[in-house]
Inverse folding.
């Protein structure tokens, strides 16, 4: 379980090139990824956005303070949009509408996409990375993605995951989670041990 001050945004491609069935697999991946974090206002906050021709913010960081509520919202509100793939426009909206609070936290954006963008992505991605300090993980899904396109979006080569088949999305959840969380301090574990030595032990929330 990742427990730290982390603002994690997930941007999902809902364009026609994915198809409804494969899109549902992406939604399942998002829910599984959220479930692997300790969502709470003091620690991990999550936001989800969806895009095709136009981007849509499903919910921002301030909306939910537990993973169950966030997952329920993903299940009920994230729908297959169809349309084109304007990733650059979606990145600009995420920068303006999502990453606009809580400076002292690790900032991570996971972009799940299929196919090349129909607009330019480099300037928008660089603004997020350089001006807002956001680490971007690019997750390419399906046969139409390519490494060059993903590297334009991602923070580095190690932040690129290219999964050819949609059925293998779940196999990369733990890798994406570790990359998003980064190095985690052992503070919480030490604090828990001290509590057990001095007070009544209550199981931690993770």
């Amino acid at each position: 379980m990742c427990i730290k001050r982390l603002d994690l945004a997930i941007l999902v491609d809902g364009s026609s090139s994915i198809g409804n069935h494969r899109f549902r697999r992406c939604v399942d991946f998002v829910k599984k990824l959220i479930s692997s974090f300790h969502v709470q206002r003091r620690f991990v906050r999550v936001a989800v956005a969806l895009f095709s021709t136009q981007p849509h913010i499903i919910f921002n960081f301030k909306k939910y303070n537990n993973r169950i509520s966030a997952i329920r919202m993903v299940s009920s509100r994230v729908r297959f949009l169809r349309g084109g793939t304007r990733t650059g426009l979606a990145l600009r909206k995420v920068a303006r509408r999502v990453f606009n609070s809580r400076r002292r936290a690790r900032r991570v954006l996971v972009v799940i996409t299929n196919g090349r963008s129909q607009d330019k992505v480099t300037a928008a991605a660089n603004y997020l990375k350089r001006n807002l300090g956001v680490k971007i993980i690019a997750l390419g899904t399906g046969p139409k993605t390519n490494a060059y396109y993903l590297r334009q979006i991602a923070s580095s080569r190690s932040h690129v995951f290219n999964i050819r088949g949609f059925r293998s999305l779940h196999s990369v959840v733990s890798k994406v989670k570790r990359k998003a969380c980064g190095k985690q301090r052992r503070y919480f574990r030490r604090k828990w041990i001290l509590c057990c030595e001095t007070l009544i032990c209550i199981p931690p929330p993770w």
The chain is about 35% helix and 20% strand. The CA atoms of residues 10 and 48 lie 5 Å apart. The radius of gyration is 17 Å.
